[in-house]
Amino acid sequence: MMFKRTLLAAVVGATMTGAALLPATASAETTLRMAYDADPVSLDIHEQLSGGILQLSHMTHDPLVRWDQDLSFEPRLATGWEQVDDTTMRMTLREGVEFHSGNPFTAEDVVWTVERLKRSPDFKAIFDPIASVEAIDDHTVEITTAEPYPLLLNLATYIFPMDSAFYSGTDEDGDPKDEIVKNGNSFASANLSGTGPYTVVEHRKGVRMEFERNPNYWDGDSPGNVDTIVLTPISENATRVAALLSGDVDFIAPVPPNDLERVRESEDAKLVTMSGTRIIFFHMNQERVEAFKDPKVRQAFAYAVNQDAIADRLMKGFATPAAQFSPEGYAGHIDSLERRYDLEKAQALMEEAGYADGFEITMMAHVNDAKIAQAVATMLARINVDVDLKTLPKAQYWGEFDNRAADMMMIGWHADTEDSANFHEYLTACPDADTGAGQYNAGNYCNPKLDKLVAEANLEVDLEKRAEMLQQVEQTLYDEAAFVPLHWQDLAWAAAPNVNIEPVLNVMNFPYLGDLVVDEAE
Amino acid sequence: MSTETSLQPTAALPSRWARFRDSYLLYSFRRDLIAQVSLAVFIAFVACAVLAPWLAPMNPYDLAQIDILASELPPFWIDGSDPAYLLGTDAQGRDLLSTILYGARVSLIIGFGAVALQALLGVVFGLLAGYLGGRIDAFLMRLADIQLSFSTLMVAIVVGALVKAIFGGATFSAYAVPLLVLIIGLAEWPQYARTVRASVLAEKGKEYVDAARTMGLPSRRIMFRHILPNTLSPIFVISTVQVANAIISEAALSFLGLGMPETHPSLGSLIKSGFDYIQSGSWWITLIPGAVLVVLVLVINLLGDWLRDVLNPRLYKG
């Protein structure tokens, strides 16, 4: 559900900008103080499939491969890969890599990690295509899929090998150390050992997180010269921007749309923006609200929401209004799908469905999206739907989301595999706890035909045919108004002028902070 | 109150109006420009608040009237404004003028409602404690001490959270005004109780009370008909201060998201909603309601000041 991409370009970019080619050996300690809207909910990188967790993963772990800025694959812990047959890929692993704990990194850790991913309620759905992983020797693994699967390398960007020895055994309470507990306490949620460029020194939830450069980091070519990173969550948008402009922090994300101009014009900061692929939308929970079972009611909701107005007024044009999941460039994207704001039609549909007088619903959103949610509530008032809106901080919101605690819940999703199928698998597939399908489907929309179609599309090697199938899914979701789309959110980061963030940023919104170069302040 | 000044030797008692006309209260009011201006502004506020549904160009609490395409319009003196929205609009497209009128209404209802509740509790407890003394006094005053050790905000947070948890957010939104009256009223009664008790202790020993007691009047009558009228001056003075305090408390709670719901913005929640925009151009969303709040509280405080001077016998004689 989040974002992802690469580093090669980052490395090249950084060296070209002419800073120092040599890894910084300056004696002065370089500290990066950064502020996000929230800190990671846990130190267990398999607990939640979220942007925050994956951003953490890129700081404390390394993936097998990662995306570079051109969206091609860059080797990380895997140095090479070859397709052995239709369903098997052999990966050669990097040698001489150590975990933070001092344990050596071997093929067994990869096997252990993938097996754990397949147990994780959040991750299991994307790892479902993988049938087995086998260690051939200490530095070779073979990944076997049940059927030919074209997106295996995309998946490998989500495999951040964990320290299997470190997480084996039981903790003081007798619970297994590798246990995955959502929104709860476990050994893994408080202890971390990866291979990544940073180790976690301190994690005070919601207050402060401190990282220190891993002295034994394997990537000697990384230009990164930051010794200490202090992450402070600042959920209040205006406060976060003020903290950057006043010099309290060096790097912030996200930058709220109404402050973009101010940051762009400031001499104390530089702004980096990218057109995003993250879809923001509302689920309509059919299990909680009988009326949502009627496609007419769902369509009425879709017709009542004016995406263009929200993108224009609230996002200040810093978003692309959407009518479907897939952004342009994705296989499932259908050019002809129009945004369908039409109030009269919406009212007519409500009347046809027998709800001319409307009904009451509850709505939940993350505090930073409060304005968008309020605007949607206002629009729904026109079809006589009375909305009880509650906005929560991120840490609490995800718990409520997992409990499906409101009739309409807002969520943003970036396709984990950079592919349309991922949207359906997580957001609109019939929920199934065993396979992890529909893990973030807070609408309980279920159309088995679509599930079958997506499953078939995943096996389709003919890319044109596959795109056709995925488009058919998108069209059906649109026709049945499975959700209320809002927009694809653009991305924005800002940093102090001496922090070279451009080379480490990407559209997945996974800053590769290990390669970040900070010039010495004058 | 002891400000009657019937100096005429005529036998017939002057009418109430005549007594008022000759009173020191009116005399001092006529000579005090600040008090006159404050009262005029205050009356204007009350009038606006009462007449809000007729004065306001739109109903800011009716979501169906809000158009997001009209969001963040500036007030009339700035380029780009729309004459339909004199003071501009907020980020959701709500007319600021209308929202301020309705918000002032909420502020005043909560201000006076909360003070009425505080006064009721405070006067009853204060009279009982002061007149009866002993264990009742000790109990009520310890209760007041405990109550004072919780700040209004804390009481509001706890009560608000409880109500939301038990009855749900929709119920809280629907009953936000009475709940805020209850919260602010309950949190601040000790101010009254202590003042009244002190006055009662001073009055209790006086001859007219002894006289009333010798006549065999019941305690209740002595407390409410004989002692209470003589303790009213400080009550009036505290009341003005407390109204201003209650209005500020409401604004603070709403600013923190614990008061009026986002769909029914009061002055406090309006100030809060504009906070994100204050440095990015749309300053009016916060500053205009902020200025209105300051003026409202200021005139009430000025009136209170004046009233205190008038009712203070030492200043009056001097």
UniProtKB/TrEMBL annotation, chain A:
* GO MF annotation list: peptide transmembrane transporter activity
Signal peptide positions on this chain: 1-28
Ordered alphabetically, the record's keywords are: Signal, Transport
Q: Which GO terms describe its cellular component?
A: ATP-binding cassette (ABC) transporter complex; outer membrane-bounded periplasmic space
Pfam families named among the record's database cross-references:
SBP_bac_5 (PF00496)
Keyword Nucleotide-binding in annotation: no
GO biological processes? peptide transport
The record, for InterPro entries, names:
Peptide/Ni-bd, SBP_5, SBP_5_dom
Domain Solute-binding protein family residue range list: 73-432
Q: Which PANTHER family match?
A: OLIGOPEPTIDE-BINDING PROTEIN APPA (PTHR30290:SF9), PERIPLASMIC BINDING COMPONENT OF ABC TRANSPORTER (PTHR30290)
Family from the record? Belongs to the bacterial solute-binding protein 5 family.
Q: What is this protein called?
A: Peptide/nickel transport system substrate-binding protein
Give the species this sequence originates from: Halomonas shengliensis
Automatic annotation (TrEMBL), chain B:
List the GO biological process terms: transmembrane transport
Mention any Pfam family matching this sequence: OppC_N
Which residue range or ranges hold the ABC transmembrane type-1 domain? 104-304
Which membrane topology term applies here? Multi-pass membrane protein
**Where are the membrane-spanning stretches?**
33-56, 106-134, 146-166, 172-189, 227-248, 283-304
User: Which keywords describe this protein according to UniProt?
Assistant: Cell membrane, Membrane, Transmembrane, Transmembrane helix, Transport
Instruction: Tell me which GO cellular component terms the UniProt record holds.
Output: plasma membrane
Query: Which coarse location class applies to the principal site listed for this UniProt protein?
Result: membrane
Q: Where in the cell is it found?
A: Cell membrane
- Spell out the family assignment given in the record's similarity comment: Belongs to the binding-protein-dependent transport system permease family.
Name of the featured protein: Peptide/nickel transport system permease protein
